[in-house]
Each structure stands twice: as structure tokens, then as C-alpha cells.
């Protein structure tokens, strides 16, 4: 196998949660370009199907699936649906997540629960459902999308539920990596910094001074810049890596 061959995902089946836009959509595109058949999920069937159609237009074998990751039963249903349609899942990317700001003393219980249910429970439910099938087949790879916010406290925005949830994702990554390595399952994570998406207008005047200017590279990242890292972690190119957190933040956390 050549170096470049080790990055190939030809013949693999990938599932990307929250894959209809932003970071998830870019990662789905990258996995597909590396040769994988890609199932993408969204909370609505319309969004999932639209993303799948876009990927198919780019020559990628794709399938859209409605999924609420915070619902364990719905996760089991979606994983079975993907497996029946595409074949067993070789690569799982746990990307679905939400962020709701608010000072700690003002955050309502409903917000706290919603964020933790999506960002933590969702990663667990999907990892468990796919992990069982991977274990039965002798292995697979899981890539979790964490955040640099698992390691720092973003200023001046207050987002205690998001910070807590992403720290949990990083530790879950390490815990599952240690437990599942004997089963042939590798579990790693990407920790993005500020990424410019439709939902994250980081160049707007009210955001730029605290999420772009402090970074040594003096810019935010673009979603497509995370795709190659996802391919690396999903492929044999990272065959001796598990439990790693790959930070991609333009140097933001150096200071």
C-alpha cells in the first residue's frame, strides 16, 4: 500500500450525523471524494435528502436519513436503515450538535438538557448503535467532532452547556478508544476552532474581535479545511491512532 492509497475509503460505508450543512456537509463531501458511500442525517427528511442529492450530483454515492440523535430508538432505527440500504457502517462521524449561549445563572433547564441531549447523549447513542455492529464484524472507525471549547473558556460569550458537552465528548472519545481497541474499533476526535459557517458568522463586527482577531493566523477556518482530517482519521492512514484529539483552530489555543 502506498502512502496515498492508505487514505482511500473505496468500498467503505460512512455515516455522518448532522451532515446536511456546515462542517458535517463538508466532511461528508470529503469522505465521498475519498471513495466512501456516505449516508447523511438531519433532523428533517427534506434537509437530509437535499444534502444527499447534492452529494450525488458530485458523483458520490449518498443516502439521506432523517434522525434525531437524542432519541435512542430513532438512532437504532436510522442505523438499521443505513445498514440495510448501503451495507454495514465502516465509518461513523458524530458531527450533530447544537450551541446555545447564555450566562450560567440564566440558562434554563430546558436549554441545558437540549444541549447535553444532542451533544453528549447523541454521540453516545450513535457510537453504541454503530459500535455494536462494528464489534460483531471485527472493527471500524469513529470520528467525533469535539471542540477547542472543551479545553478553553470562550470569551466573552457565555455558553456553559456547550463547554460542558464538548469536554464530555473528548473524554468519551478517550474512554471508548481504550475500551474498544481490542474489538478493532478506533475512536478519535477533531476539535475545531472557530469555523466560518452559515450558523457561525465569525467575520461580523460583533464576533470578529473575539473569535478571529486573537488567532495567530488571523482568520477563521472554513468547513472544507476539516474534511482532510476526517478522511485521515477514518482511513488506514491513521491506523496506529486511537483516543487522539486533533485540534484544528488556526493556533487559537496556543495563547
TrEMBL record:
<keyword id="KW-0560">Oxidoreductase</keyword>
<dbReference type="InterPro" id="IPR057326">
    <property type="entry name" value="KR_dom"/>
</dbReference>
<feature type="domain" description="Ketoreductase">
    <location>
        <begin position="12"/>
        <end position="193"/>
    </location>
</feature>
<dbReference type="GO" id="GO:0005975">
    <property type="term" value="P:carbohydrate metabolic process"/>
</dbReference>
<dbReference type="InterPro" id="IPR036291">
    <property type="entry name" value="NAD(P)-bd_dom_sf"/>
</dbReference>
<protein>
    <submittedName>
        <fullName>NAD(P)-dependent dehydrogenase (Short-subunit alcohol dehydrogenase family)</fullName>
    </submittedName>
</protein>
<dbReference type="InterPro" id="IPR002347">
    <property type="entry name" value="SDR_fam"/>
</dbReference>
<comment type="similarity">
    <text>Belongs to the short-chain dehydrogenases/reductases (SDR) family.</text>
</comment>
<dbReference type="Pfam" id="PF13561">
    <property type="entry name" value="adh_short_C2"/>
</dbReference>
<dbReference type="GO" id="GO:0016616">
    <property type="term" value="F:oxidoreductase activity, acting on the CH-OH group of donors, NAD or NADP as acceptor"/>
</dbReference>
Amino acid at each position: 500500500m502506498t502512502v496515498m492509497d492508505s487514505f482511500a475509503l473505496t468500498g467503505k460505508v460512512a455515516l455522518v450525523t448532522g451532515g446536511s450543512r456546515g462542517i458535517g456537509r463538508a466532511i461528508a463531501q470529503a469522505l465521498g471524494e475519498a471513495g466512501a458511500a456516505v449516508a447523511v442525517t438531519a433532523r428533517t427528511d427534506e434537509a437530509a435528502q437535499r444534502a444527499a442529492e447534492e452529494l450525488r450530483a458530485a458523483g458520490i454515492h449518498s443516502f439521506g436519513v432523517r434522525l434525531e440523535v437524542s432519541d435512542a430508538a430513532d438512532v437504532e432505527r436510522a442505523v438499521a436503515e443505513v445498514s440495510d440500504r448501503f451495507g454495514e457502517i465502516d465509518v461513523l462521524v458524530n458531527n450533530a450538535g447544537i450551541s446555545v449561549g447564555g450566562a450560567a445563572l440564566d440558562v434554563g433547564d430546558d436549554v441545558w438538557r437540549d444541549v447535553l441531549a444532542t451533544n453528549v447523549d447523541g454521540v453516545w447513542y450513535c457510537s453504541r448503535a454503530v459500535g455494536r455492529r462494528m464489534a460483531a464484524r471485527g472493527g471500524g472507525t469513529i470520528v467525533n467532532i469535539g471542540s477547542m471549547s472543551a479545553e478553553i473558556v470562550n470569551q466573552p460569550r457565555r455558553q456553559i452547556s456547550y463547554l460542558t458537552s464538548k469536554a464530555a465528548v473528548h473524554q468519551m472519545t478517550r474512554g471508548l478508544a481504550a475500551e474498544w481497541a481490542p474489538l478493532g474499533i478506533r475512536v478519535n476526535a477533531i476539535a475545531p476552532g472557530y469555523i466560518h459557517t452559515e450558523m457561525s458568522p465569525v467575520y461580523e463586527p460583533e464576533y470578529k474581535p473575539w473569535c478571529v482577531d486573537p488567532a495567530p493566523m488571523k482568520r477563521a477556518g472554513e468547513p472544507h479545511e476539516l474534511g482532510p482530517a476526517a478522511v485521515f482519521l477514518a482511513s488506514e492512514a491513521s491506523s496506529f491512532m486511537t483516543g487522539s484529539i486533533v485540534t484544528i483552530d488556526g493556533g487559537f489555543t496556543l495563547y
